[in-house]
Automatic annotation (TrEMBL):
One of its GO terms (cellular component) is RNA polymerase II, core complex. This is RBP11-like subunits of RNA polymerase. GO terms for biological process: transcription by RNA polymerase II. InterPro entries: RBP11, RBP11-like, RBP11-like_dimer, RNA_pol_Rpb11_13-16kDa_CS, Rpo11-like. Gene3D superfamilies: RNA polymerase, RBP11-like subunit (3.30.1360.10). It is found in: Nucleus. SUPFAM superfamilies: RBP11-like subunits of RNA polymerase (SSF55257). Residues 65-137 form the DNA-directed RNA polymerase RBP11-like dimerisation domain. Belongs to the archaeal Rpo11/eukaryotic RPB11/RPC19 RNA polymerase subunit family. It comes from Zopfia rhizophila CBS 207.26. PANTHER family: DNA-DIRECTED RNA POLYMERASE I,II,III, DNA-DIRECTED RNA POLYMERASE II SUBUNIT RPB11. The keyword Iron does not apply. Keywords: DNA-directed RNA polymerase, Nucleus, Transcription. GO terms for molecular function: DNA binding; DNA-directed RNA polymerase activity; protein dimerization activity.
């Protein structure tokens, strides 16, 4: 049975057998992209003449623009869309991933006219960067505090052993 499955997996380029030595009758088949180290960088490195962000104004709805983010996924899409909802001047923001195999999403933003959708995105990005800097500083402070406490505990235990 294993040789037949092995041959099937060898000849099928989009799948590979994860663990042929399992004692169970269940098999885990994974996509080849999970193991293909050569193409891993294609997920986040831009191609020649490819822009990170492209945008165009929506002609059917006033104060609306569609931004296309290349080589990005749900992480950034959800972060931007959620943050944009917090601004009073943004009346609508949502993103969609056109196809799950391509690292790209489209973000649609509508404002009330007091600010352009492009300026709303720029402000949103700046605010997110500031929030992440605060998070980084807080994390570093807590991490160093834990380390100092841990080193202090280690020194105290070493002194107690000497006594």
């Amino acid at each position: 049975m294993w040789t037949t499955i092995g041959r099937l997996v060898e000849h099928e380029p989009n799948s590979t057998l994860r663990n042929p030595n399992r004692k169970s009758n269940h098999m885990n088949i994974a996509h080849k992209a999970d193991f293909n180290n050569e193409n891993r960088f294609e997920l986040f490195l831009l191609d020649d003449n490819e822009k990170k962000v492209e945008w165009e104004e929506e002609t059917r709805i006033p104060n609306t623009a569609v931004f296309t983010f290349n080589k990005e996924d749900h992480t950034l899409g959800n972060l931007l869309s959620s943050r944009l909802h917090k601004y009073d001047y943004v009346t609508f923001s949502a993103y969609k991933v056109p196809h799950p195999l391509f690292a790209k999403f489209e973000l649609r933003v509508t404002t009330n006219g007091s600010i352009s959708p492009k300026d709303a995105i720029v402000k949103c990005c700046k605010d997110i960067v500031q929030d992440l800097e605060v998070l980084s500083r807080s994390f570093t402070t807590e991490w160093l505090g834990k380390r100092i406490v841990h080193e202090g505990e280690a020194e105290r235990l070493a002194r107690e052993r000497e006594i």
